[in-house]
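Two proteins were folded this term; both appear here.
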Amino acid sequence: MTTLIKPQTRASEPAPISAKDELRTFFEPKSIAVVGASRQPGTIGRDMLKKILDFGFNGIVYPVNPSARFVNSIRSYRNVLEIPDSVEMAVICVPKHLALQAIDDCGRKDIKSIIMITAGFSETGPAGAELEKLLFEKVRSYRMRMIGPNCMGVINTDPEVRMDATFAGPKPVPGNIGFLSQSGALGVAILERTAGMQLGLSSFVSLGNRTDVSVDDVLAHWKDDPRTDLALLYIESFGNATRFIQVAREMVKTKPIIAVKAGRTGAGARAASSHTASLAATDVAVDAIFESAGVIRVDTVEKLFDYAQAFATQPLPKGKRVGVMSNGGGPAILATDAVEGNGLIMAEFAEETTIEMKKVLADLASARNPVDMVSGAGFSHFERVVELLMNDPNTDAVIALFVQPITSNSREVADAIARAYKKNMHVGKPVLVCFMTRDGDTQGTPVLREAGLPVYVFPESAVQSLAAMDHYREIRERPTGTVRMFDDVDKKKVAQIISEALASGQKQLPTEKVVEILRAYRFPTLRVHKVDSRSALAKTANEIGYPLVMKIVAEGITHKSDVGGVRLNLRDAQEVELAWDEIAAAIMRLPQKVDSWSVTLEPMISGGRELVMGIHSEPLFGPLVMVGMGGIYVEVLKDVAFRLTPITDTDIDHMLKSLRGYPILSGVRGEPSIAFDFVYDMLARLSQLARDFPQIKELDINPLLTFPAAEDCVVVDARMGLEAK
């Protein structure tokens, strides 16, 4: 029997939490105490107070300075306890040796929220980390929440609030984007870039060391914030990965999340013994988290801004059909290649659209997609063609490309595109513009951005941004999915095997024990016979029947074929004994000494399509499940997909269809499809096994031979590594 469970309601996991009320005082405080406010120009305490005042904060500000009666002509207090009124939020800018006392004072004052600007904690080494731990314990003891330490602050552009509690960066433009950065230095660059691109922010958060308030907390706030329509993230580490997925899944139903996750390299160098582990570097786990949550991941901050332009200003496309127009053949070809390369489709225009375009365009122009208006096209041509493509029934999105001739006026063309767009916005189609003008174009680009149109320098950037929007559309349409839980598994037997192995110090389970565990979770396996001596080979082989496969069993040898420890298609007793001798000779040639070894004999299964499945326990995030095209080339081809457990039926479907080898599994050239229902069942059982037994550090099932009939599918080989928890 199986039980279907909505992933959000599993008893073992926290339900999604709305943090709007919990974080309200960070974004909408009625009063702010600036602890460490200074009279000295150029200090953070001085700059912080000035930024809050200059932005026009609609609340009360209390400078706190033990040595000054007035700061910036405002009454100052020696500590927050002297402030006669209640205070909702404190921004702490004092030296680190005064930070703990500042927290104590805020706690006794019953201040609910702390923005800890002060640096010098875990980012400096072990001593700083210990001080940060004490800081966190104090914050929790007073039931406060804290952003930071080592952060840049928080901004809320809401006209009802008007709070810029940061110490650097230009004045932000109000808008609908929530931006989170774990890097203060990058936060400054982000604010500079958003202002320069006229990208409006609803709020900005610099998390710093993420000691208390984390990414998932801020997302939970933005999820319910009516002024935030899009979340942009620059993150270096996660808080609670499970809660991040839960909150993000809820949020992406209505609001996209686009993220840059730093730290792609380094973790992959960790030694790993199994295929699953060697492929599952920490960055792969991050990809799995983002995929599970529906977060769109980008490689660079530049691409983050490319996508942000489109998502913040344009409606989602209703499909993949793109109309491309240009006054230059080369850019049109580049855009066409990019459209097809990014999974979009070049639209086939309706006949009436083509007829109308021919009336407008020059004789040498092409009215087919991509529309080449030739270099002589003027602003009137751009205006009419944009209008026609936006209203074409066979087009879901429009990309307009403009290459500036020496004599043309980019402002006129920009005005024309903007007029056509505004006139036809009601059709609800995204329009993206590529303005290939001279460097520093100050004529056309500002006009387009003022009209709410995203502007790109090169065609590929525009197409990639549109493809990301289409991907998000698919994410929103994706069903939530359910987690299958199986009642027919023998958990007691598996618990006993694992317990006995760990008690005896075993880190790598013998093959026969791995087979027992898989059978306990209803995986079909071959009957494997272990043979310890050459003299017993013939008798055992005759009992099994031919043809046979022989594999070495020895501690420290994981990849058997790499050391010559596998022999296939053995057809009689003589070949079996010869295979033993060949394996013995291969062992003698190994650089490391093998004290004892044996072999396994199992039936030779031919045909079928090979899959690999596995479990990898990621220290930061928990167990991952992997599936991919199997066999001896799995680590070379790397055609695999990972998901964080528990995986839903929707996750499984997406994992399998994301494989480059999926067409092979579904059948090519008249071949029947493999038994996908069986594969779905095995992956769901694998997910449950991973959740039931976190002691499983690594599990490889490779290959799992699959056939059109489920009863023919079988696990051919598997290995498992353990780790005490």
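Next, the second protein.
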Amino acid sequence: MIQILTFLGFTVLVAIISYFATRKTAESSSDGYFLGGRSLTAGVIAGSLLLTNLSTEQIVGLNGSSYQSGLSVMVWETLAAIAMVVTAMFLLPRYLKGGLTTVPGFLAKRFDVTTKTLTSVLFLSGYAVVLLPVILYSGSLAISGMFDVPELLGVTHTQSIWICVWGIGCIGAIYAVFGGLKAVAVSDSINAIGLLVGGILIPIFGLILIGDGNLFDGLQILTSENPDKFKSIGGATDPVPFYTIFTGMMLVQLFYWGTNQQIIQRALGAKNLAEGQKGLLLGSFIKILGPIIVVLPGIIAFHIFEGNLESADSAYPKLVKKVLPATWVGFFAAVLFGAILSSFNSVLNSSVTLFGIDVYKQHINKKANEKTVVKYGKVFGIVLAIAAMFIAPLIANAGSLFAYLQEINGIYSIPILTIIVVGYLTKRVPAIAAKIGLVSGCLLYIISQFFMQPYFVKTALTNAKVNGITDAKELALVKTQAYPHFLDVMAILFILNVIIMLFIGVIKPRETDFVQEYTKQVDIKPWKHVKTFSFIICAIVIAVYIYFA
């Protein structure tokens, strides 16, 4: 009972603080609702970025990957820091200079309205069909398991998932649809503190258990008895081979932290460029520490359970249950619930923004005032949330959720990143090049990953078995060698799309150079220490890799 009371108490406290912090924000206007009145400061931006990124599909999924492959999967965290540095120094100044509310808004000015609409539809499709349902489903698995909902309510496992999905979905929709970005950002910042505290406690308790009461003895035992798990260089059969850092991994990180509406909307709401840059760099420093929460527990679980768990994705939940004192369960469940809500309501708020600004105002009701745009954006958000709640329980057999997300996101991430990069770095590439880049990028990736890759892998495995290869490790190696890693495919398609767009720009250029105008909505004077701290962060990332190599 104390666990449930602690859970409810912390959750309600966050809601009350969010309400009082946002009740004076003018959310009937586009800037007020979608960007928190362009008033977000560095701490709020950093906290919101952290919680938007961290959720159960990452905490459970990455720890599951580290349980199998060790420290090499930390690349999803550490390389994010460098991508955030690039965003702070290169992309954010340009976004704020143009007074953007959405990333596709830049594409309308650089190319044309059709390009903007196509990009918004791509974002919305990915959010609705993949990201929102996966967040809901993975979160429901965690909450259902932590409170043993089937036994508590006397229902089946499937019924408990439906109950948790709709509970999380409804609460998340209230935050995102009726509170706007500022409510999301404030609640994120509070939960960020709780997640850092709770997330760090799990490996601490785990190491104390290994060291028989001594934290440092536990760390020494863990590293000395599992040396292969503490190598930053991923092998050929690991989820992220080391060489992919120099192919598609950096592109994925740049898309996620620099162009993904779900993420960059926090920085677009900054009160000025300096605050936005400080928020991004603070967030990037925290990401370097991220492996303590999303990688180290998986390695600890491997040691404690001696690698005998049936499912790698069960490593983190089982470790929490094993090492966390009963009095902490309610608090940690509330923090995890906050992380789930954060990712869900952040994606939902971004979807509302994209629909209201880029679809409704642009194509459905061009004469709509800001209050009407916000109103119909909220209606769309409610419909999208309900759709996601119906889809979420149906993806129970999707396999590894984290890997599934990363691969599926490639359908729209690389095409969108391509046209944004080319758009900013060139002045004469025309709108038709962007449209072709979007369509060709999506189609080529779908053909590659969902038609060619299964065919080549199936053929290679069949031939291997015919030749007498039955060992699981050897078959895994055959599988990885049968077709390029999806991150390599992303890099190839990115280069190909850039070449296509530049070629079109040569044979059919714009009539005039594109010149970005300064809207003067916020002060774009950079933070005076941005270069110094950017260098420090990049140096730390490189040093970490060298130390663990």
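The first helix runs from residue 2 to 22. DSSP finds 23 helices and no strands in the chain. These notes refer to the second protein only.
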